[in-house]
Amino acid sequence: MIRRIVRVLLLTLAGLGLLACGLHVAQSGTPPVPEPAPQTLRIATLNVHWIALRQSEGPWSPAGWEARRGPMLRAIGAIGPDILALQEAESFPGSNEDGTNLVVDALREGLPDMAVGATGDPRQFPPTQPILYARDRLELTDQGWFFFSETPDVIYSRTFDGGWAAFASWAEFRPVGGGAAFRVVNVHTDYSSGSNRLRSAELIRDRVAPWVEGGMPTFVVGDFNAISGARTMDLIAEAGVTFLDTPGATFHLNRGLNLLPAIDHIGHSAGLRPVTAAMVFRERTGEVWPSDHYPVFADFAVPAD
Q1: Cis before 93? omega within 30
Q2: Residues 278, 19: contact at Cβ < 8 Å?
Q3: Cα Rg of the chain (Å, integer)
Q4: pLDDT in tens, 225-282
């Protein structure tokens, strides 16, 4: 009897191992990064993972960030985005109080051709979901935020079920040299609470729909903590947003393990025409991974007036 039980357990473990290997292979792959076509904009999204200032070691400590910094800059440089939406660009404790933001400081220094939008005085604008943009191609014309909360216009208000504050930042741009204005909404929904995700998606839909109906071309990008076809995604799509099909995994457990379908996505409204599919950059650009998420990017035609 014991031998039979052991045999069943071993067969089960072997089966799980084969399943994990199969999922990893199916969710993997990195196509070459193409050169952007003329008159296109490359938009990217990346969850960079927060930094715990009081941790002395580990990937999310300040020392871990110093190791991740170079690989992150190389990964972003390899993609060459015109717009880069970041999630979890925060340094705990203090980012909501004194503006400490090691990630943004490093990107300002390492990516001098990019400016930072969707940020400001942390007492008035949450600075942890900035949207970087190519300063020679785009002009920032407006920006704002709303929290996934019963009081969305109250800064740092807690989520619907009382959990940690989560929000959407947004920025409005106009192409330098001519073209229509457009907006980028940068979101990060709750990973642990399905009810928070759904109510957040409803709020995103309700905020974005009037913009789209009014003719404002709008991107909705970020870490949705939801796979394609999930109710979270369908609710946001009701605002007139179409999500590109993101191939394979975008979250890899900080180990390059590609076991889950994509949870980071790029969506767009009418007036924004994709000229490539969504692509996932899974190359390891250093001794450590830049984050536990991969960057996702796609190219769009410059919106016409």
Answers
A1: yes
A2: no
A3: 20
A4: 999 999 999 999 999 999 999 999 999 999 999 999 999 999 999 999 999 999 999 9
Q: Is the dihedral of CA 122, 125, 130, 135 positive or negative?
A: negative
Nearest residue to 129 via CA among 138, 118, 140, 121? 118
**Mean pLDDT, all residues of the chain:** 91
Residues 49-89 pLDDT 10s? 999 999 999 999 999 999 999 999 999 999 999 999 999 99
∠ CA 86-92-98, nearest 5°, is 90
More confident residue, 289 or 98: 289
Structural domains of the chain, with CATH = 31-301 (3.60.10.10)
